[in-house]
User: Fold this.
Amino acid sequence: MEDRPSATALLKTSLPDLKLLSQGKVRDIYATSDPASLLFVATDRISAYDVILNNGIPTKGQLLTSLSLFWFKKLAHIIPNHLITADVTEMPLEVQKYANQLEGRTMLVKKAEVVQIEAIVRGYITGSAWSEYKKTQTVHGIPMPAGLVESQKLPEPIFTPSTKAAQGAHDENISPEQGPSTLSLTHRLSLDDFIYFCLPAAARLLGQDLYDQIASTALQLYKSAAQYAETRGVILADTKFEFGLLSPSPSNPEKRELILVDEVLTPDSSRYWPLEGYTPGKSQPSFDKQYVRDWLVASGFRKGLESGPEGKEGQGWTIDESVVQGTRARYQEAVDLLTK
Assistant:
């Protein structure tokens, strides 16, 4: 087994006796000898604008995992989650042999069918929501009150789902409110077809019952987490949840249980701001990867240059060391504030 210096970012796992099923922007997912479970490994890779950067953030995987474990436990009263164990000694024997590589950054989880939307909840107007509001006075197609300013708290949190794009592609918003923008009047539709086309786009994708369950659960999760975070001096501006469906049980073959999967409420999937000094009307300092996004844009990143800086296309983007250390410090501070 291999020891890694703490200052070295783990960009790629090497578990040759396990079958690698997928490699995402951050996580590597492996099969195990248990057909009902999967091994999730959080690497130190970091992405911004759906681009994986050349270098990672040392110990980021452990920080993400520790915060996910904290929130899984804290929010278990709202919805079950996919966690089986994060203790490597309780995992299958073929996993335990890689303990030095995996310790603190891995979870054995229940195998589930991932629901193909990202369940985004926004409590404050910022980022792409603020950009849209300035143009149309809407967020995700939802009409909003006049006179909002950047970073202002919304009257109520809103559910703004998006598609789950393949790696390297961009997620696309799905309006939770609007049906299709156009429908040819020459089409002769049955009543069932007409009702289907008039459903909100996200509900058409999932089915109304599942959509309603996910929207309601995501809002409950956000409200509970945001309320707690505020007691720790942290604002949870927005976040992304992912859900899965377990296979039906023999006792109830008609029902598939909805569970919370992937990571939850980490700085990779959420915007966290310090409560102290919060001032609506401007962008806020953050504990999340907005710091990396800002550096990337300042370094010349734009649409069309995903593969590298201008004149160096194909070489990728390498984060400055000062930004690596600054990002790690922000992630560590968020974990400490929320969990200690």
The two ends are 31 Å apart (CA to CA). The longest strand covers residues 234-245.
